Structure formats: structure tokens, C-alpha cells
Known about the structure:
Layout: E1 31-36, H1 44-48, E2 53-58, E3 63-67, E4 85-90, H2 108-118, H3 127-164, H4 168-173, H5 193-200, H6 202-221, H7 252-282, H8 289-315, H9 329-350, H10 365-393, H11 405-433, H12 444-451, H13 453-485, H14 493-507, H15 512-537, H16 541-544, H17 550-583, H18 585-598, H19 614-632, E5 635-641, H20 643-654, H21 657-660, E6 663-668, H22 672-679, H23 681-684, H24 686-695, E7 698-702, H25 756-768, H26 779-788
Amino acid sequence: MERARDHRPAASGPGGDGEGPARPEEGTGHALELLVHGVGGTTPERMLDDPRTVRVTGDDTAAVFRRADDADAEGRPGGRGDGPVPEAYVWCNLTSGNGTRALWLLLLPFMVVNLAHWMRPTARGRRRTVRLYGLLVRLAGLSLTVLLVAAACEVALDLAAWQCAGTAECARGNSWLGFLSPHLTDGGWWSMPGRRLALAAVVPLSLTGLLWYLSLRTWNAYEAQQPLVRAPETGEQGSRSALSRPGFWYGRRLVARLRAAHTAAGLLTVAAAVGSAAAREDRRPGGPALLHVLGVLLEAALVTGAAVIVWVVCRRGRSERRLDPAGDVRVVRLLPLAALALLALSLLYAGWERPGWESAGRLPGDATFGALALAQGLLVIVLAVVARVLHRTDPDRRTAMQGLAGPAVAMLACALGGVMSGGVAQRVSDWLDGAGASIPGPPVLLTWQASVIPPLLVLLLMLCGWLAHRAWQLAKAERAAVESDYPGETADPQRTRRIACARAMAALTDRGPRIVAVTSAATLLLGAGALFGALATQKTPGEAARDSHAVVHGAAETAQALGSWLIGLGFILFVTWGRRAYKDASARRTIGILWDVGTFWPRAAHPFAPPCYAERAVPDLTWRIATWTASTGGRLVLSGHSQGSVLAAAAAWQLDPATRKRVALLTYGSPLERLYGRWFPAHFGQDALARLHQEVDCWRNLYRLTDPIGGPIGLPGDCGPAVDRAPLKDPLAYGRTPTHPLPAPVLGHSDYQSDPAYTEERHRLLTRLRPELPPPRTGAHASRAADTG
């Protein structure tokens, strides 16, 4: 496509240099339609329906495009003349780019727990309770980092360096570990247990470094983008949505603090795994007194470091009421360096000469994973109590799961982290040991966790069966409604059934809260049972049930074996998908679609979550809207499809009140109320959307009954025209007509712009917008306007 270098519209905004075509005078009627695409992305050629497009502003990551013929529309008398100038904001590369994005699959549990932070219920006058909610989610996120690094330590330190390399039979079967084996090297330098552990620590250390690198790289590309500077609005708290606050999309200070704390937590986890084994050896009677003292001091330092990390995570949340460019330099720099120094001391301490030290059994992993599972369960339970208190303060019947969506999603994030960590440990153990059973294997708790997966899958299959039955019932009930929507048409049972099925499948989206609630509750109960079974028996499920009834013993053995295989299969599919995404651009786009929904929100609970694309997209849109309206004095329709409608609403909230009143919203296929309003009520609840309806000049929303994502906003016309238009017909024609001589497809979530209602509503919005606006300011006045917002 063409890249416009000399075709920028005149006067890119307040404070411009005055070069280029003269600005139009007041009332010249310039109109702009700023299109924002939705989930999955598209190309500017498709959005603008023209093969010749030029880039107006932006870069290769996100940019605004126009048709080549419209590049200088503002410089022509009367503007475009035949309607608004269409502009396309293309942001799909923020979520689907090169092959390194496939690594984001590793960050899935972190993304899910970050979502839990934003699912907080609406609350009035409960600032301390709101802070407690955020603190609990941040602690849950910290536990996930420790869990992932501990799993890497389990694989590299315990299974490979401690168990396999210390067992002659396993070391012979894995020749690449031969130089670490005391049996095969006759007491070589690396064969000492402490030195083996120190060398194997490279694996979890590399994982921690990779997480730190991904977070820092994406932080520079996303969170470092400064939003449009403006003064806080009078009575801004009354908007009932934090998305209108100046600092909402600028969370770099919190992300930097959390990144330092989580990096330090990962390093200290590795240090504890290496140093605790050596300290346990030095505590035995007859050990060197000096090493015993050094071990005690090292463990005390590790405990102190852990306490400091927890304090850093708990001390400060997000700063949203103003742009906060300050950085906690000492914490950000010194905390990871101090943790790295403790890790180096731990490696040196573990590598010290200890005659007669031999590796036997397992490293103390059972206690570690058990403590993490218990802590996560308690955090989720307390979080549920806090969420319920908040919901009862300001109840909203549309809120998903009566305010418990956040705790439920946090529970699923912890379960996902446990499955990923346990799956890796189980597969590596089977790979190292083969069928010989020469090593003890992973901690018993991980085996119990694997054993609860089959019953959980049975429950999910039952839920899928219930959904299928519900869809059949809905489709049967919709057939009469379909026929009534197309009166006078010759009945076609197959056509009617296809349309009714599309409506029924789209309606299943509203059953999502029930599915999440049942799955999360079952996960909590099964996880608690696995923890109790592991702690009470200290045996695998098959061994614990050996003396019980044959049916019970057989079920336990089957669940244990099947769970291990299912985890292995899931892990293989996970890796295969990641490799395919690395090589296949279409697969990368599929991953990008998942992140479009999951990474809209800033990283408030976990710094290693995939980056928040809205921290780049929303400032882009607000800058473009503010500068264009200020320089031309024209009318602007902000047109958003699907996830683009969410970005459009967020951008409208960020505008100053005067500019917001000069903008009209046109949303279609929008999840603003159906998904975001129910799952994120504190930010997209009915009160917040009603206030946005009041503050923009006008707002219209289009939706279809066959759309599984978009839906009505549900706002009446108290502040202007009602937001929702009646549901659009889908398909546009039931049978063959002169206008549609070929069968019209069921569009569902796509091609809203092909419906005549789209053009009609856009025309109504432009007509409603005031045609005469104050003339733009120039020179120093415009510069000051840009600085103050």
C-alpha cells in the first residue's frame, strides 16, 4: 500500500506549524468518520473499500489510513462533498505480529489473573475494600510467578540434576546427564549434588530472564506511550467509570514496580531451591559448623527478601487520577539486583565441598507446592468474601455471578498454572525414567492434581451437553419468531431452521457466567481434595487406594494414569500450537484474536501478562480525535465494530468535555454491555455507560440476534435519542428478491456496514451534530490547548 509522506492533512493539530493548506473557516461542514476495527483485525484496504490507501499518521504497529483520493480532503473547498471522509485506525499488529508473539502462550495464567483484577464489582464509599481486592489479586499473581519458576526448578533441579543424575540406572539411560553422575564419572567435579543443582539452576534462571525480557520489551512498546494530557474533570468521580481518569491508560509506574518484584521473586525461588538442599545437609549432626551458620544466615536473608517482595507488591496499587511519570528507581533497580546477589551467594554456598553428600529421594518440593496451593486457595476464598461485600454495597442484577466473577476467574488462573506446571513435571519425569521406575518422580501433590483432571473433564462434557440441549430448545422456540420477522415469504423449513440455530447459538453467550461458576467451584473443591489427599497420605492416589475396594483402587489408578496422559497431551498440543504460530501467520492471527479480548486491560495484577494494547490504541485515538476537531472545527463520527467499539468508548471517555460533545458514537456488534458491562461492572456498568451517553453528542448502536458477541446497550433516550436501534434483520432477505437475487447469508458478527441501516444511522448522527462550531485556535493558543487538554 502507499505510504503518505507528503499527503498529511493540513494542520495535524493544535500547535501545528501552520504550513500546508489553509484551515477551513467556521461552518464549512467538514465531516470525518473514524473507523475502528474489531477482533482479529483487517486491512485498511478492506476497511475503506479501496485498494489505494495512504497512511495519514502512525507507524507499522498502529496507524490511521485514508483513501488516496481523500488525503487532502480538508484542503479542498467544501471538504469531500459526498459524505464524511472515512479514516481507518488499524491496530491489529498490536496483538498479532511476528513469531515471537507465540511465546505469549506461556503467559496465559498471568493474563487470566490480570482479568480478575478488573472484574471487581461496583462499589460506593468502599475505598479500603477496593484496595484490599486489588491487593489480594496482586498476591495471587505473585503466587503464580513463584509457581511457574518452582515448576522449572522441579524439572531441572529435582528430576534431572538431583534424582536422575544421582541414580545410576537413570543416568545410564540419559547419557547427556552422564557428566553429572557420580556413578559414571567416578566422583567428577560436577558430580557433587550442590554443584549439580547450581548448574541446573540455569534453566529456571533463564525462564525468569525470559519473562523479565518480554515484560520490559512490551512495556517499552505499549505502556510507555503517554496519553493526551488534560486536566481532571470537575465531578469526575460521578462518571462512575475510572476509564475517564487522565492516568488510567498510563500504568508504567505500577508495571515497573511489579516487574521488579516478580523478577526478584523468581530469582529468590531459584536461590531457595538450590540453597535449601545444601542447608538441610549442613543441619545434620557432625556437619561443618561454619557451613551450618552460613546456611542459617542465607535462609534468613531469603526470608527477609521474600518479605520485602510481598511488601513491594502490597504497598502501592494503580495511580489513575493523574498522569504519574514518577518511577520508583530504587525499588526497580535495587530489588532485582539484591535478589540476583542472593542467588549468586546461594550457588556459591551449594557448590562448596561437602564430602559424603549424596542425593537421595526428592528435594523438598511437596512442601513448596502444597504451601502454594493452600495459599492460592485461601486467597481466592478471601477474595470471594471481599467481592461479595463490594457487590452488596451497590448491587447490580446484570453483574455476572453476583459479583463473584473476579474470584472465579482468579481460581481458574491458579488452576491453569497448576496444570501447566504439573504437566511439565509429569512429562519430564516419564521421559527421564521411561518404564524403569528408578527415580521417585515429581512431588505427590502434582500427581494428585493430575488425577482430578478426568473428573473435571467429565463435568465439562456434561456442561457441553447441557449447552447443546439448551441450544436445541432455543432454536425450536426461535422458529416461530423467524417466520414472523419475514412476513409474506414462502416458508422454507431448512432456511428457517438455519436462522433459528444461528440465533440460538448466539444466545449461548449469555450462559457463560454459569459455565464459569460451575467450573471454578468444581476446580476449587477438586483442588482442595487433591491437597488434602496428598498431605494426608504422602502417597500417589493409586498407592493410597491400594488396600481399599477393588473398584475404588481401579478408579484411582485409572484417574492417575489418564490424568497424566491428558496433561501430556495438552502440553504437546500447547507446544505444537506455539510452534505453528511461530511459522504460520494465520495461526499467529488466531492467537492475536484471543489476546484482543484478554489484553484490553492494563497490567494491574501481573507484570508478565501479555501487554495491554489499549495503552497504545486509546491514546492514539484520543490524540487523533482531539487534533482533528481542533484544527478543522468539523464533525466526527467515531465508528467502532466489536472490540473496536470498546476502544472507541474508552477513547471518548478520555476526551475533554468540550471535544466529547463534538463527537458522535456509532457502535455495531458491540460487547460493551453484553460482555464488558456484566463482567467488568466497575468500569462498564449501566451507570458508566449512561454517563457516556449523556456526555457525547449522540450515540447509536446496531446489533443482530444472530451475533454471539454484540448486543444492545440498553440505554433509554433520557439523554438524547435511544442508543439502540431495533435488531437488524439477519439475513437481509429470507428468500430470493430483486435486491438479493442470490441467497443472502447469515452474517452474525460480520459485515455490519453492508446493512443499509448503517449508512442511515451514520447520516442521522452527522445531521444531529452541530454544523457550526467555534473556530480553531492558532499559534501559541493552540499549543497551550494541546498542553492542557
